[in-house]
Amino acid sequence: MNIRNFKNSDLDEVIRISEISFGKSFDPRLYGAISDNWPEAFIVYEENGRVRGFLAGSLAYDTEARILMLAVHPDFRNMGIGRSLLERFVSVCNTKGVRRIYLEVKINNKKAIDFYMKCGFSKGSVYPGYYESGEDGLIMWKSL
User: Fold this and answer.
1) What is the CATH number of the domain that holds 15?
2) Alpha helix ranges (H) inside the chain
3) DSSP-derived secondary structure letter, 132
4) Fewer CB under 10 Å: which end of the chain, C or N?
5) How many CA atoms lie within 13 A of 72 on its CB side?
6) What was the pLDDT predicted at 62?
7) Looking at 13, 31, 116, 131, which residue is catalytic?
8) Domain membership of residue 96 as a residue range
9) β partners of residue 104
């Protein structure tokens, strides 16, 4: 197992995991822009030379970071990969002086909400119709 910064050569696998996990495609340039913005906050979990999961984050304010995407390939879920990625991201945030991390999750995604709660996140506001599908978004946050 190896957690490391995203590289351009990871793009195809990251896109595949993203499409499977989120059920939609993002412009491939988005991943490059995220990586360019804060390279240490776009990390992948690699095993046997293959990307199994990734976390993409950004600085929202001087002391706040945002998790933009966290996804693990379905064949490798419930093995601690998501938690490992999140722990690395928290470590990166600590070195940057971040004091709070937040994210948005679909209000009906109970597995994700439970995962983030177990990782120390709290529930915040609900944004009605936040997602393209019309689903509400739940803001979750964690103080460091």
Assistant:
1) 3.40.630.30
2) 11-22, 28-37, 81-96, 110-118
3) T
4) N
5) 19
6) 84
7) 116
8) 2-143
9) 139
| Rounded Cα–Cα distance for residues 22 and 20 (Å) | 6
- Is residue 45 part of the annotated active site? The answer reads no
pLDDT in tens, 45-82: 999 999 999 999 999 888 999 999 999 999 999 999 99
Q: How many CA atoms lie within 13 A of 11 on its CB side?
A: 12
Q: For the chain, how many structural domains are there in total?
A: 1
User: For this structure, is 40 an active site residue?
Assistant: no
For the full predicted model, state whether its pTM sits above 0.90: yes
Q: Please tell me which residue in 31, 40, 104, 127 is annotated as part of the active site.
A: 104
Note whether 45 and 51 are within 8 A (CB).
yes
- Provide the pLDDT for residue 61: 83
For residue range 35-54, what is the model confidence (pLDDT) as tens digits? 999 999 999 999 999 999 99
Check: CB of residue 64 under 8 Å from CB of residue 98.
Answer: yes
Burial 7-18 (b: 16+ CB within 10 A, else e): eeebeebbeebb
